[in-house]
Amino acid sequence: HITINGKAEILKDVKVRRALALAINRDQIAKTLLGPLGVEAKPLQNHIFMGNQKGYKDNAGILSSPNVEEAKRLLDEAGWKVEGEFRKKGGKELAVRFVIPTQVASSQQESSLVFNMLKAINVRVNIEAVPSDDFFEKYINTGNFDFTVFSWIGTPFPISSSKSIYAMPKGEDIQQNYARIGSDEIDRLFDEATATFEPDKAIEIGNRIDKLIWDEVHSLPMYQLPGTQAVKETLRNFGAFGFASVVYEDIGFAKT
């Protein structure tokens, strides 16, 4: 996913965040990164539920697919006018600082794709590769970025495990909300969803939360990574388990 720092000066305006999101072709990114693996390559359209979980639905609205012309219109409306090659407002250039860790090939690929996509709407992207050991401590944790990319791990408890990522920061306590934006309504709905004992009701609330997260343009899920395991051909009942429980007594080698 791409995390968008909503406290960065140029990204405080939700119109700007929405415009940049509209210019990013997540389908193309998914096909580029997942295509070589021989699996179905499509963007993930939900922040809470994985594509193979009960409750998954597309809540992305206008962000479900790219719309370059609408992206340009929103930036014009927000006062970022094309001057020469890039957009400016009050003499300041609209330039996105995309921070990635060094030696992570997927991060380099994704940021390079975004570079070209945002250039098409006259927005400069400055890709800054930083030492992997410093990536979180000195950049992500401190909000020292505009865009960044890394992975979250899906769990069998999608709502409760997501709360710390999207809950409204309280002062310097951001938990895992590196976008640093949220709403009281999102927090209230997380509390309601985690308090209910009715699974279907929790799923319905979870999708309401997801829609609000999309409305905030908090972050952009890119794709769901497949689980892959390489095992000997004769090994049975072992591999990529996903969210399933492992029945270890059923694992073994086939008789020859």
Report how far the terminal alpha carbons are from each other: 45 Å
Based on Cα principal axes, name the global outline: globular
Whole-number average pLDDT? 96
**Order of strands, widest sheet:** 6-5-7-1-8
Uncertain segments are: none
Order of helices and strands: EHHHEEEEHEHEHHHEEE
Amount of helix: 25-40%
By DSSP (H or I, 4+ residues per run), the number of helices equals 8
Assign the structural class, choosing from mainly alpha, mainly beta, alpha/beta, alpha+beta, or little secondary structure. Answer: alpha+beta
Subunit arrangement of the protein: single chain
* CA radius of gyration: 20 Å
| Residue fraction in strands | 5-15%
The total of beta strands comes to 10
Largest sheet: 5 strands, mixed
Give the SSE map.
Layout: E1 2-4, H1 14-23, H2 26-34, H3 68-77, E2 81-83, E3 86-89, E4 92-93, E5 95-101, H4 105-119, E6 124-130, H5 135-140, E7 147-149, H6 158-166, H7 184-195, H8 199-216, E8 219-220, E9 235-236, E10 252-253
Parallel strand pairs: 5-6, 5-7
Antiparallel strand pairs: 1-7, 1-8, 2-3, 3-4, 9-10
Short key terms for the protein model shown above:
single chain, 256 residues, alpha+beta, 5-stranded mixed beta sheet, 8 helices, 10 strands, 35% helix, globular
